[in-house]
């Protein structure tokens, strides 16, 4: 927030405003020009929302600088970032395809899926070893055993690997086995975990919270980056609305909105967004057309028997057909795939 | 809803269920097979939601046939419909581009826009003569004068024309001047108006209500078709959610959902959905990629001075660039454009 | 909106701003003081949202006057209004109880309910003669026949009567039979109908739209009042959210918000808001405690057989018990009941 | 979920269904009666949602038992629970008032507020030592120092104390100083933290997530109770909707809905729900009238200078006036206060 004082504002008025701001726990930076004094306010502007600064003597106008995030802000980093994961690049020149099962069920299953998605053109294997489940009585994942299978799948196929973490312990474990970690929707504002991922320094994909605003999402990214980890990729996975014909409502506009506000790459997850496998192919095409940097898609060797989210998983055949179809769209978007 | 009676259900049990249904004001169709009697229920199933029909004697199971809409239902009309408007076709083989100002401001303005959008490849001119405005003190449109300008624009350019109506009177007036009428979001459940549009028999584009479910939307279409007017096109224009970075949230998944439920064509309006002109081009590409049959886009000769919705209008140059870009996407979708 | 010019702003700068405003179709009122010129802008401020008036030469600051509604605005009418309907008063000194069936089914049914709710202390009989239904195949009401029964019920019991209208025709018909008319949620932004109700001059209860903001709602009231009809009562009936354990989400905070923004009375409808009869009693108590001026409650002689909304209707016994219970809450709120 | 087999179902059909269920990772309990075999399914029913069990041979019907939570379920624990915290009881016979600052700012401030809220009748002191903030650059709380002040305030006033925790570390620290811990909205589905609170065994207040359904919320409570900690209190604090005139939308219906589904006590937080101090008093009255077991209210010695959420904090005078007013409402609700 910038407070512009009136041309002939006396020192008393300037000091009054400065102390109002400081009393609110914020810092000020004075820029005294020849004609006008400008007071920059650093910190959480919401603390000032009830003070009628506008009404203070000799205040000319208040210019809000709405974004509280800085390191993820495009204003201070205009070029799109490219995140390097092993020998894979996520960014403006590529179309990244992450594919695999919702939950890792066995080594055999994971290897079979890994080979299939590799053959179809995916560059990342996804697979859940730690599953945050609504009910405590649901299957919670194979944990470290699942991570080990991910490592084997990587060794066999050369695919990069990504896995969700849900706590400090799972993070510490996962970074020994996989290339990139994922923060799920339910943990988007688990600030403690965000800071730890920031300290870990590993590439991370941050999913949007179930009803997070784009501004809250970029602030969550800021928690990671401000701890020294700039390797952040965002993932739009649908938001919660009143409409029930899809599991969530894919907020496809979030892609161009993010492209105007941040330099971070954006992935779209049509599987979780829709919850229905028939909609995954059209939503994947649309995500590439709108400018997404990649896709995260659930693929399963036998969707009818999947332990988790079978209804939204593609078969090998459907996934292969989809990646074929996406080539033309990637080309139109100027992306290697 | 279909009620399946148990194999040996006696007549008394069957009659008991039939009278429960009839007491709820619904009709029944009995289908007495050799082994099983099936009771079809016709009418609004919600009236039965509190009766525990399942618990009635000798009821085997209840099979909900969830959709209360029939004429718009793909189940009974599997092939996609093509709506003929003058010499224009809206349907699976074409990409329809409707473009023009939010509000008609003057004849000169409208003609200038009509020529520009025609040159860029649009086949429909849109323009508001009756504007439903939140405040009674806002500009409400030129009404019949505006419609007359639409007629002139059609004569000069050969474009088909579409205009929103908001009442019986504006409907009666509009059909004398334009080729297709539009029911706006606020009137999606103005059932009286829907019936009158049904009786009028003219091609109509029905926009989705601000927070209408897809099922409510198809039922609104059913109001029109059940009066004898099958020339209905749907238009997704964004739904209301908590996210404020766009004016509404474009529910892009509605396109594949509708394609699975109805045979009616679907148009996407990225201008009203986003409210921000910079997002119109990416959202247009994505709508074509996801399978939409067309687009409705606001174009203005001078967006900064538009009487309504300037922020979401494209300039002639941007619109022309967009239609160029859309050609490749239309081709991938197998549509003439 | 008020535009404050800088102290020494030359006439050229003032005229530039005035013409920017007028070009947007708005009127200006100049107030030229000794030191400062203030430009008042009359009309829909949203038309100016894209013009960067703040950046125009010699503009000191812009003070938004956010509300576009005036006649319903508490600022210009600080005392709460009392709406007289026959010999009934709706306002700050009374607790108005409107009760009756969702849909009028027969004369016998209506009279039986009328006597029961009268005995329990209600002062209004509600009953639907025109039902806006999602599906065209649902029961749409008895229409004029139902209105006639309402008239009879009034004659027999002395209750005031209220009935929903959905079109010009039903409005013209209803005002011959009932004391007050209701605009339902689906027609809250049927501006044509609002204007006609405004011209009719009869007392009207305006329900909140399914996903209307409070500001849109007050603007809808403004449509009615600006046609010369100040007899407007608002009715909160729940908004659409993601939560499905109730039919809608009762926005109980809307009552104090409205009390701070408007002088119009506010009624709460816990039956439609929750859709579940067990929740009607606690929500009624809470509505009185929060400051509502009345309640609209569905009561049915035989909820299990109701043609519409049986699940949310109270029996006579439950309604009578509730009105007994409400007496203490009305007393705490300083209201006659 | 209970699967009812047809009367004469052969063993082969029964075994087929059993294996379908087991293949989905769920357990079965067979109950073979004289006429009918019933198969109880234990586990996450959603895993079966895509298998068409209904279509399997000899299945008569499927009776969903919708709730996946058991220990928090009223069905298995019909009487309302009373949670003992020190010498305070939270439950059906009392009205619990938790009051204090959003964030603890200094010892002097906290003690001054503690004495004021004690004098006004509060039985709990609330105060934030760990603040989950949207931006990493906002004030994050005094942490252990703040907890120490809470301990002093308890010693001086005899109030019970409650404090939010955001991680394993803050939990371990907090239980040394305060009587009850709080899980905030952002951590409602931080399942790791829920489990740890379950193991810690301390009284806990679980706030509803920003857009959590009531079912998700009760499942979150289940995570805590299933680890052996039954001392759980729920807190409704508003949900995220499109309406912006309040910070969140208080879902007041959640109180009667919870009362019908769970035996756990329910507290309402009108301060966070509305974000506006003027609305706190009416919303508090309405929460007591609807059946809440208590209130959590922000009180500050100087709201204009509060480091966090000043706009929603009551002054001492307003809080004292409110507690006076609530006495009559508590009496009507049959609660000691």
Notes on the protein architecture:
4 copies of one chain form a homotetramer. With 337 residues, chain A is α/β, with parallel strands linked by helices. The radius of gyration of chain A is 23 Å and the shape is elongated. In chain A, the strands form 3 sheets. Chain A has an 8-stranded parallel β-barrel, surrounded by 6 helices. The first copy, chain A, has a 4-stranded antiparallel beta sheet with strand order 2-3-1-4, with helices on one face. The first copy, chain A, has a two-stranded antiparallel sheet with strand order 5-6. Helices cover 34% and strands 18% of the residues of chain A.
Keywords for this entry:
337 residues; 34% helix; alpha/beta; 14 strands; homotetramer; four-stranded antiparallel sheet
For the secondary structure, the number of strands of chain A is: 14
Write out the strand line-up for the largest beta sheet of chain A, numbering strands in chain order.
7-8-9-10-11-12-13-14
Ranges of chain A where pLDDT stays below 50 over 5 or more residues in a row are none
Distance between the amino and carboxyl termini of chain A? 43 Å
- Count of separate DSSP helical elements of chain A: 10
Beta-strand percent range of chain A: 15-25%
Shape of chain A: elongated
Rg calc of chain A: 23 Å
Order of helices and strands of chain A: EHEEEEEEHEHEHEHEHEHEHHEH
Arithmetic mean pLDDT of chain A: 90
Can you summarize the main beta sheet of chain A? Answer: 8 strands, parallel, barrel
